[in-house]
Amino acid sequence: MGGESTPNRAVVQSAGEAYRLSAARLKEEFNRHGDLLALLLRYTQSVITQMAQTAVCNRHHAIEQQLCRWLLLSMDRLPGNELIMTQELIANMLGVRREGVTEAAGKLQHLGAITYRRGHITVLDRPLLESLCCECYAVVRTETQRLLPYLSAGSSHAAFPSSPEHAS
């Protein structure tokens, strides 16, 4: 973004594959003003949308709705319906107390949307989870699909770009 470095850190939430590219090579390609530049700018716009919507969501919506949003966005990036994640890490991502996540996950489990057992969350009923969610998930998903439509080609829940969840 022109600042040459950043004080931020990245957190890997789920196992999978990744690519690594030197900063010099990325900057060289970026300066060509080609397809990669366009892709990275659209991705950045998508991430900014998610960060802004997360800040609004964290301020105005119940923990259950925030958890639904976070679960749905996480599931969009994964091939299956299971997430391996502790309540402590989810609480950190949402900026809430672990007890709040425990209570919210219990409600979602009681409704039949998910099952939860120590570090494993399985989404059982995605349409139900979407109906329990606030509008924030749809805003982020719609904008991501608009900016990066090829990510959702052939799959209703394709891997959307990862981004910092707790940005406020």
Précis, in short:
This protein has 168 residues and is mainly α.
What does this structure look like?
- The structure is a single chain.
- This protein has 168 residues and is mainly alpha-helical.
- The chain has a single domain (24-149), classed as Orthogonal Bundle (Arc Repressor Mutant, subunit A).
- The chain has helices spanning 23-30, 35-60, 63-76, 87-94, 98-110, 126-132, 136-147; strands at 82-84, 114-117, 120-123.
- Strand 2 and strand 3 (120-123) form a beta hairpin.
- Helix 3 packs across helix 5, helix 3 (63-76) packs across helix 6 (126-132) and helix 4 (87-94) crosses helix 5 (98-110).
- The radius of gyration is 17 Å and the shape is elongated.
List the helices and strands and how they pair.
Blueprint: H1 23-30, H2 35-60, H3 63-76, E1 82-84, H4 87-94, H5 98-110, E2 114-117, E3 120-123, H6 126-132, H7 136-147
Antiparallel strand pairs: 1-3, 2-3
Helix pairs in contact: 2-7, 3-5, 3-6, 4-5
Give the overall average pLDDT: 85
DSSP summary: helix tally: 7
- Summarize the biggest pleated sheet: 3 strands, antiparallel
CATH superfamily: Winged helix-like DNA-binding domain superfamily/Winged helix DNA-binding domain
* Strand-pairing-aware structural class: mainly alpha
Poorly predicted regions: 153-168
User: What is the straight-line distance between the termini?
Assistant: 20 Å
Radius of gyration: 17 Å
CATH class value: Mainly Alpha
As for the number of domains, it is 1
Could you spell the SSE succession in H and E letters? Answer: HHHEHHEEHH
